[in-house]
Amino acid sequence: MEVFSNTQLIIITILMFIGGEVFTSMVGLLIRGFSRHSSIKQGGRVNDSMSDLGIPPNFHDQLELGTIANPEFESSKSDIFDFGYDPEHVPDTDELKFKSIKFLGLLVLGYLIFVQVLGVASVFVYMNVISSAKNVLKQKGIKIFTFSLFTIVSTFASCGFVPTNENMMVFRKNSGLLLLLIPQILLGNTLYPSALRFSIWAIGKFKKKAETSYLLNNTKEIRFHHFLSHKHSSFLVVTVFVFIIIQFILFSSLEWSSDPLSGMNNYEKFIGAMFQTINTRHTGETIVDLSTIAAASLVLIVVMMYLPPYTSFLPLSANKSGKRNSDQRKKKSTRALLDNIIFSQLSYLVIFIILVCITERKKIKEDPLNFNVLNIVVEVISAYGNVGFTTGYNCDYRLKQDGICENKLYGFSGKWSDGGKLILILVMFFGRLKKFNMNGGKAWKLL
Length: 447
Known about the structure:
- This protein is mostly helical.
- Among the domains are: 6-187, no CATH class; 335-437, no CATH class.
- It has 20 helices and two strands.
- It has helices at 6-19, 21-43, 59-62, 71-81, 93-129, 131-140, 144-156, 175-187, 192-204, 209-217, 219-222, 230-255, 266-278, 295-306, 318-329, 333-341, 345-359, 361-366, 373-384, 418-432; strands spanning 63-64, 67-68.
- Strand 1 and strand 2 form a beta hairpin.
- Helix 8 packs parallel to helix 13.
- The radius of gyration is 25 Å and the shape is globular.
- The two termini are 49 Å apart.
- The relative contact order is 0.08.
- Residues 43-55, 57-91 and 317-326 have low confidence and may be disordered.
- It comes from Artemisia annua (Sweet wormwood).
- This is Cation transporter HKT6.
- Its main location: membrane.
- The chain crosses the membrane at residues 9-31, 103-129, 141-164, 176-200, 233-254, 293-316, 337-356.
């Protein structure tokens, strides 16, 4: 990373910012909100493109002077009135819907700017105040502001890049810096839906009560992947922290007195272990060399990297399950055929791992300590989860020492063949788009 100039780091920062999940979701919301809202204001009624939102074809005939003779509307309207609104000031339900979508887009924009500006300012102040952290950047020739901006954007966007060659290992004793990055990890990834819903609830206490009430009570109608119901958001928070606690207990019990955390006091170990476990989903910043940690910890990290960011334990009622099965039976034959031939996410990952083992079979035979299957699995699952964790490559593990190999801090895939690297690139694209195939493999029944 240190071969990049200051200008190149800024360019990479811009790319990470516009490629982040929060930014891309915000752009989609603003496009939906402004375009649909303007079409309603210009035409005075909703156009035919609204049919994809579940609005019946004869909806236009039901619209008269902002009043809809529709039982569903009356029900939703009565729900709004329960919050104390004056019926004369309640806008048409569809106009309210798209005003709410536009408001949600602006809220995400504010959320994005507020969290990252606060993060950059905090890290910038910390790096200027704490001499040990400041000296590291001074020795490496990295500007403090560039480091602060780059690291916060990368952390919030779950990229895992840090301007130093050693990632966060060089700052493993700077517990304050690690604590400043932990909220960025959670708010930009696993806890984004819950934080977004909480922000809407908090704003609704003071202003925009019609829009916030509609958003909080009509989660499905908004059709926004990152906006979950109250129940789902609550279970998501619990699940995230349960996963963190499980990882922290296992990692601490196995690594507390081992080499990866040597030279650190108990407080530094506690914060470092917490930072390391939170990063497994899915930021990828690390304070330890993953090749030196216990295999059990590495396997758990693989599982955490595989899980999508919004994985949660969410009990479902039997009625909902039955309804879902009924809906599936109504699918078109072409869609049913597609469902039958699509594999599950895990099946594709197994295929990718097998392909990498084939392309790297010569190195697996000649250099088995570095090119072991577990290291390959870590690299592939890390690419799939867009995490960025890597076990690296250690020249000392080679069976045949030729004196040419030099230990450098770079990813394990740096030693792969071109074929293996191309497969890993495909895995990264596949992982970035995995939400479009989360229901694959349903035709297989494991009995």
